[in-house]
Every structure is written in structure tokens, then in C-alpha cells.
Amino acid sequence: MGQGRRETILVADDSEMNRSILADMLGEEYEIIEAENGMEAVGAIQKYGPQISLVLLDIVMPKMDGFGVLRVMNKQHWIEEIPVIMISAESGSSHVERAYSLGVTDFISRPFDALIVHRRVVNTVLLYAKQKKLVDMVAEQMYEKEQRSNQMIEILSHIVEFRNGESGQHVRNVHILTELLLKRLTQKTKKYKLSRTDISLIGTASALHDIGKIAIDEKVLNKRGKLTDEEYAVMKTHAQIGGQMLKDLPMSQDGTLVRSAYEICRWHHERYDGRGYPDGLKGDEIPISAQIVAVADVYDALTSERVYKKAIPHEKAICMILEGQCGAFNPLVLECLTDIADSIPEEKSNSEFSGINKREMRNITEEMLDRKGMTASDRTLQLLEHERMKYSFFAAMTEETQFEYTVSPPMVTLSPWGAEKFGLAETVMDPLHKRKVRRLLDIRDWRGIGEILKKATPENPVVMYDCQIMVKNNPGRFRIVARAIWSPEEPTKCVGVLGKVIEQKGA
């Protein structure tokens, strides 16, 4: 199974004595990083980032106090990834309330009680580890679903582009530029209240902006020369047709993707001065999704070769849009276009239309769970706790010890009955390097267990091993039944073991 890295705790306290006491309490199980003021604490978090599993943070410190550190952690969104336990002799309700409002997970008062400190640290680290695992699981499922949805949308949009004599690159480029503009817009203003989820959804929906062209006569759609007034009138109907196609879908119109796609299809040819079509909307009467896609659509139309025109260079296309040669656009959106202009060619050449990446999906998942007050995680954790209680009860009734071992972090969790029987804590960090754990079995049996686990495969993950275990200094015969757990990302990598230890009475 190998040795995984130990969890890292940052202790930020201006008292060397306090840091030393906490290091003595926790140093056997965790890697300890020390900071003697708030500025050093911020520097350590910036340096080590997600490698830090927990921050123990004093309130009163020089240069920057604990609340200052929390403000920085909130501003940089570190507090979403790294839990904080506040430590202080100040126990007033105002301090506690302020600490919790800034995202603190727990509060420890001085003088320290070793048992309380240890239990709260272990509980907090485990809770965040479980939440991260749950978020990763949900994000993975959402990512797969997103990929399938994007593939279907891409197929449909390629059908439209094929009829239009194009390769489908237009869809990719509009998607890329739409997300670039939206991300820049959210950095410049909070006016439109766009979340990462919204940005992803609008980017996906942008692929359907020209779906109405599927109903336009190919003679008009692919005409090499200038369209007549009658032909242009026919061409303009694609916005209404696309919107109506989506409105007629046999599914809920309350769905955010359908609603966003409808807004984009119908109104991406509206203009900020009211001179667009089909409804002559003006200013922010036009949904921001349609405003953004309008700019992305015009830019790519200018810089791409068509049956009726040559491609225009990037710099000239940007100037034409900013100078109003392609219609009026939201000045704020034009500022965003100016800000990202230099990066557009590189982003287009480096990006593929593969939908949202896994990291972005994890961010969106966390955002969704946070928006719902962590409802999904809380419910799942409650279900897990319910299952744990059931297993613990059955284990006690059958006199079996159930256990779970994880490679990273290296940790074994025992059922309460089993922990009591073998004289161990229910949770033991880095167990293979704990003398009390290693003394349970003879060195030959430890090697034997390691050998049979090496023989486990994803197809045959269950193994058994008979051995002698010391139970409170008395030897007994036991059978270990274990199931190796494999990484979903790396099928050949063992990430842990589930199992039970059964006493062989009369053996």
C-alpha cells in the first residue's frame, strides 16, 4: 500500500510557547508549519496552498491579526479549500461570532486541553477530506454528463454549420470567446451577477445561436454575392425560427440551458441602440447572454473566411467592432473585448471545444453546493453517518472488527467495538508508523498481509489472511478479510482497503 504523505497543519501564533505546545500535541501525526504573525501565515498559505489541511489561527498577533488573515483568505477564496480553527484566550461572544462570520470552522480556547485540541483537529481534517471526496465524486458525474451534453450539442450545431458550408470551427470560436468575455465581465462588475455555473451554461448554449439557419434555403444561406433585400429578410428570420424551435421543445422551459439558449437564439442580433432584430430590443432589455454572444459572433464572422468574403485580420476586426462599424454594443462588453483582445488568437489556437474541464467542473460543483448551504454534502454525510452506525451495530453484535484504510492520507478507521477490543483509537493517522499498531502483529504477518494485497486485482479484489493478533497483550487467532479499493482515474492504483477482522474461536 505504501506510505502516503502526512497532512500538514499551519500553526499561526505570536507565542513561541503556544506554537511549541501545539506542535508537541500534533507533531506525531501531522507535519507542522509555524508562523509567528499574520503576514507570515498569509505567506505560508500562498506558498503551500492546498497542501495545508488545516490552519490553527491566533486572533491577537503583530503585523496582521487573525481576523486580517481571515479577510485575506476570504478575498483569495482560500477559506473554501482550507479549514480554520481559531485559537485564543478571548472567549467573548463578539470575537466568536466575528470569527464564524469570516468562515472559521471551530474555536479553541487557551489554555489548551490536549484531548479537545486533538479531537477537534482530527474531526475537522476528516470532515473536509470527506467533503472534498464528495465534491470530487459529484463533479466527476457532472463532468461526464456535461461531456455527453456538449457532444450532442456539437453534433447538432455541426449539422447547421455543414449546411452553411462551414467546418464547425465557428461554433468552437464563439464558445471560446463567449466564456472569455463573460469571465472578464464578472471581474469588472457585479452588475449581472454571473456565477461560474452561469458562465459554463451560457458557453454551452452559445453553440446553438444559429440553429434557426437549418430552416433557411441553401440558395440564400450559401449565396456568394450580396443578398437582395428579400433574401436578407429571409436570412433574418433564423433568429425567430431558432427561438421558436427551442420554445417548442417537449421539455420544461424552466430549464436554465433551454432558457439561455432561447435568449441567445432569438436576440443575438439585437443591438444596444435598438437597431437590431427581430424585436428591436434596446440596452439591457437584451439579456447579457445574447449581448455577449452577439460580440463573439460578429468577431468570428469578421475573422473567418466565408463563401462570400475573405477573412479580416484580428486587429482590424477589433477596431471595426469598437468603432461601431458592426452595430452598437454594450460599452462595458466592449471594454471587456479590449481587455482580452491580445489573448484571443492564442486562446482560439490552444482551445478545443471539449466543454468544461474537470477543474472548472469541481469549482462549479462547490459553488452549487455552497449556494444550497452545502445541502447535498450534508445530506450525503448524514447518510454515510447512518450507514456507519448500522455497520457499527452489526459489528458489535457479531463481534467483528470492521476497518477502512486509506493510502492518502494514511489513516485507518475502526468500528467502535473493534477499537475497544484492540485498545486503539477509532481513527489512527499514519497507522503503519505507530508502535501500538505495529505490535499487534508479528513482522512476518505484516509482510504476509502486504504480499496478499499485492496479489489483489480490480477483477479479484477480495483477499483473506489468517494470523495471530495481540489483544491487550494476549495472543488470539483471527482471519482478516479485506477488499482492495482502486482509483477510478488510475485503475491499477490501490487507494485503500476495506475489511473486517474475525476472531477464530476455538482455533
Structural class: alpha/beta
What level of helicity do the residues show? Answer: 40-55%
Span between termini: 29 Å
Q: Rg from C-alpha positions?
A: 30 Å
Your description of this structure?
The protein is an alpha/beta fold. The protein has 19 helices and 11 strands. Helix 6 (169-188) packs across helix 11 and helix 9 packs antiparallel against helix 10 (256-267). The longest helix is centred in the N-terminal third of the chain and has 50 residues, at 114-163. The two termini are 29 Å apart. The model is unreliable at 352-356 and 371-387 (pLDDT under 50).
Summarize the structure.
The protein is built from 19 helices and 11 strands. With 507 residues, it is an alpha/beta fold.
Topology:
Blueprint: E1 8-12, H1 16-26, E2 31-35, H2 38-48, E3 52-58, H3 66-75, E4 84-88, H4 93-101, E5 106-109, H5 114-163, H6 169-188, H7 196-205, H8 218-221, H9 229-247, H10 256-267, H11 288-303, H12 314-322, H13 331-340, H14 344-350, H15 358-371, H16 375-398, E6 400-406, E7 411-414, H17 416-422, E8 427-429, H18 435-438, H19 443-455, E9 462-471, E10 474-486, E11 494-503
Parallel strand pairs: 1-2, 1-3, 3-4, 4-5
Antiparallel strand pairs: 6-7, 6-11, 7-8, 9-10, 10-11
Helix pairs in contact: 2-3, 5-15, 6-7, 6-11, 6-13, 7-10, 9-10, 10-11, 11-12
